[in-house]
Amino acid sequence: SWLPKMGSCTSTVQHAIPEPKLKDSGAELSSPGTDSFHADDEDPVFLVRQGVLGQRHPIDTPFGRRELVYADYTASGRFLTQLEDFFNDKIAPLYANTHTEASATGAQTTVLREEARLIIAQNVNAPANEYATLFVGTGCSGALEKMMKVFGISLPKYADNKWNLSDHIPEEERPVVFIGPFEHHSNELAWRESICTVEVIPEDKYGCPDLEVLEQLLIKHQNRSMKIGSFSAGSNVTGIRIDTRKYSRLLHKYNALAFFDFAGSGAYVAINVKGDSEEESMDGIYMSPHKFIGGPGCTGVLIAKRNLFDG
Fold first, then answer.
1. Where does the UniProt annotation place the signal sequence (predicted)?
2. pTM for the full predicted model
3. What is the pLDDT of residues 66-76, one digit of tens each?
C-alpha cells in the first residue's frame, strides 16, 4: 500500500493521486492524464488518475501559457469524470426531495442517500446501532457546529454581545475542550466562541500534542462536568499524524470524550471509529469529503456515538 503505517507520529504527506503501476519499468512519464502512461487499464489507481478533470488544462501565466498542475488537495479535491458521468446518467434523471417517498423519484433519491450513509459508516467501522452518520453543512466546520449544537454549548454571538451571557457562567461550570497545536481554525475558533474553556496542548518532540501535558490538564479539570478532546488526526500543513488510539485511551481514562478532525487526512488513511476496544474507540469524527478526489460539492460528515444525542 502507498499509505503510511500507523505510528505514534507518522507523515500523511503523500501524492494525492499515486503514480500508476507501469507495465514497462523503463517507460517515461509525462504530465498526468496523458497517453504516455503504460499502465494496466484495469488498475483502479490508473483509472482514477485518468478520470480527474482538468489535468493538462491550459492556463495563462506571467510566463506564458502553461499546463495546469494542481497541488492543493489539502484545500479541495478535484472532480472525477466517472462520478460526474454516473451522476448525470443515473442520479440526476431521478433526483427529487428526500423528504418524501410518495413518488418514484423521491423514493429513489432517499434510497441512494441511505446507501451512501451505509457505505461511509462501513468504511470507517461505525456500526449503525452504535453510531449516527450525518450529512451536515460544509466540511468539518458544519460537522463541528452540528456537534456543538447537540451538546448545547454554542453561544449566539449577538445575544452574548448584547447581554454578556458568557460572563454569568462560572468558570468551574464551563465545559473544557482540549485541542492540539496544529488545528485548522474551524476546530479552534468555534470552541473559543462557545461557552467552553479551551486548553491548547503544546507539541511534543515528535510534533504531536503532548500526552503528558494533556494528562496534567485532564487531572486539573477532572471535576468539570463535560470534558472534550478535539484533535486533528493529521495536520494539513506538516502531514504529521497522531495515533488516535493513544489519545482516546487517555481521554477516556478521565471520562473525557474523544473527537477527531479528519479534514486533512481523511482521504489518505484508514479510519477505525469503533476501534479494537471501548477505550480506543472514538466518540466522534468530522470529515470533509470535498477534499477527496471526486468530492467537490459534498456536505460535511459527522459520525458520533448515538448515546450523545437526545432522543
1. none
2. 0.85
3. 999 999 998 99
